[in-house]
Write a structure and sequence with these properties.
The complex is a heterodimer of chains A (359) and B (282). Helices cover 25% and strands 34% of the residues of chain A. Chain A is α+β, with helices and mostly antiparallel strands and 359 residues long. In chain A, helix 2 packs across helix 3. The longest helix of chain A is centred in the middle third of the chain and has 18 residues, at 171-188. The longest helix of chain B is centred in the N-terminal third of the chain and has 41 residues, at 2-42. The chains are: A alpha+beta (359), B mainly alpha (282).
Amino acid sequence: MTDRSGVEVRLENLVRRYGTVTALDGLSLTLAPGELVALLGPSGCGKTTALRLLAGLEEADGGRIVIAGNDVTGLPANRRNIGMVFQAYSLFPHMVAWENVAFGLQMRHVSAVERKKRALDMLDLVGLARFANRYASQMSGGQQQRVALARALAIQPQVLLLDEPLSALDAKVRSRLRDEIRRVQLEVGITTLFVTHDQEEALAIADRVGVMQSGKLEQLGPPTLVYSRPATPFVADFVGLTNRMQGTVRGGSVEVRGTSIPLVQPDVSDGPAIALIRPEAVSIDGNGGTDEGPLVGTVIAVAFLGAVSRVTVDLGDTTVLAQLPTSSASQHPAGTRVRLALRTDPVLIQREEPAPTAS
Amino acid sequence: MAVAARSIHGTRRLKLQVFRTVVFVAAAVFFLVPIGAMVEFSTRGNSGQRTLEYWKEILAYPDMVQAIVASLELAAITSVVMLVLLVPTMVWVRLKLPRLSRIVEFVCLLPLTIPAIVLVVGLFPMYIWLGTNVSDSILTLALAYVVLVLPYCYRALDAGLGGIDVKTLSEAARSLGANWLDVMWRIIVPNISNAILNATLLSVALVLGEYTIANNLLYNNLQVELVHLGRANAGVSIAVAVASLLFAFVLLVVLAFIGARPRRMHRDPVAMLASPAVSSQK
């Protein structure tokens, strides 16, 4: 079975340029032993580049990569002892599942009997022992990625890298496999870097989430913190939904439509600003009736999401998203007048041109 | 309605079937009549009876035997050199230098546009130098033949490499500890084996049928010897020609058979059950 004591991984001031484009701009990141860190960000933010540098599939233009105290910056990919699951299906088409899993062991000159046994053990770990003799073409996408995971773990790597392994799968398989990956990762205890553009995926399985933009880490922290206390407007915008509401900063808080809300960073100058307010911080206070007021408006859409619903309310000059329990949202169908209330949790502000609608 | 539609569909299928049969028969006649005539001629005795005299006589011409052996050796050497040159180059270009792919393609297809006789004019001084300083063996012709087969083999291999995700597969193998030789030998080659077989077949067929370069550079390969012999003993010459055609045909069938061979049969699931490593799973 794989080594259960993870190792520390440090990326120090990594730089990678493609011609004039800087893909990684001094990225520093430390993964604690056995930790699963998810790098999250839009396309081209440098998250995959960071992972490929760590894997040794690309060379850094600057910085260091240290795994378990050893500098591996100049080491080729085949000598780094890193397991990787790719976005594209990467099983070797001419080998059956167990041969795929055993390939890395063959490269390490493990005896034929031993490598078959270990390959079957690994397939067992991902619940695919029954499929040991199937070719990739005879398996579903989810099964192929599970075999790829078993293959990556079979070599007892020091680090596991997951490069958007779920993006080619359909929604249901994706969430099941996501949980499966987390279960296996916890069972094996391996330090893991998971790259994704899907925030739900990152928030669901990571110990810590790193949000990247333009080759830099904007924020690194536990999922709950990244979501509830975004460090920058970009993070607030990218992770979860955010209402951008016009307000005025005055003495460390921002006044939005008659409600004073404290600021996450209170030491900013007074003046107009855009407050970034989560939909769940917006509630429906009651029927608006014929009342007028800054937070009275008309429900224009109700999106049913299961236990909760997302209600879009038109306030005249802007629209606001409110996330409510479905039971209370159902009392306010589209067309009804409602009065909104804003929770006074600390918010971030942005000093830019106001956006007309909720994002 | 449904019956009418079915009947129209049936008529169309019948027409297609007839068309296919006609094309097949026409093609078969086109190829088989000359071969049949050659077989007939090479087995015709003086007094009209069938005889294998000319076929037996092949061995009585040592030059011909030598030429056959030389051509087979040339075919083998050309194929190996072509594969060793082309496969790693094409994989490397795909992985590391994709912007060079157009240039490599252009260079590889260039010999197609140069007539063999022009090629000979260019190669002649080189072969004079080779003959004086290195070797005057007929096997040096393999150098010219590698250039000759390049366009055809490039196309075949390119199609094979296009069918797999070379980048992801080689990166996966690298991350599992494979060096470049392992990547090439254990991952890329098995997955483009059909393309490699096709390229080999093409180069063998081209080398066995090559006349212009060998004749003008004054080497005696199979085709050159066939022409010589044709003047001295037409019957034996035709027998050898039929034999070389049959050889190419058999080679084609064998390669096609290997290429179309189904993937290894899955091991018996019952045997898997018996395996202690998985028995707990069932």
